[in-house]
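Quick review question:
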């Protein structure tokens, strides 16, 4: 067990989607700074992995994907917040601005496949 002075880090999240949404999803996540990386050989036929710094998104190809109705991935965009929201809008993704939390702007977008993504300028305190 980690003590109070130690930090656990979330490494990845897996999102299910149908095969038809893979290319559009890779493009969506690329706009947020994620690049494709190579999954283990035994799952390459059914998974696409993306990474940004130490975080990964694992796209799992399913015939009938399950999408959480309210759960979401939250991505901190920092100084690139405004330009990334603009790039998403120009690429045809709807942006749903929300009131700031902790003095930080935030919005939601839907990734291809229907997953909610919270876009934050800064992380919660």
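Suggested answer, residue by residue:
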């Amino acid at each position: 067990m980690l003590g109070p002075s130690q930090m656990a880090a979330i490494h990845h999240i897996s999102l299910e989607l149908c095969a038809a949404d893979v290319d559009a999803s890779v493009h969506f996540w690329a706009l947020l700074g994620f690049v494709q990386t190579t999954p283990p050989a035994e799952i390459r036929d059914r998974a696409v992995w993306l990474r940004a710094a130490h975080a990964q998104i694992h796209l799992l190809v399913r015939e009938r994907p399950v999408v959480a109705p309210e759960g979401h991935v939250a991505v901190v965009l920092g100084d690139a917040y405004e330009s990334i929201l603009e790039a998403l809008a120009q690429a045809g993704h709807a942006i749903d601005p929300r009131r700031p939390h902790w003095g930080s702007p935030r919005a939601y977008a839907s990734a291809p496949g229907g997953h909610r993504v919270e876009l934050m300028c800064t992380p919660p305190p």
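Why it works: Strands lie at 12-17, 35-37, 47-52, 55-61, 72-76, 95-101, 104-110, 116-120. The chain is about 15% helix and 35% strand.
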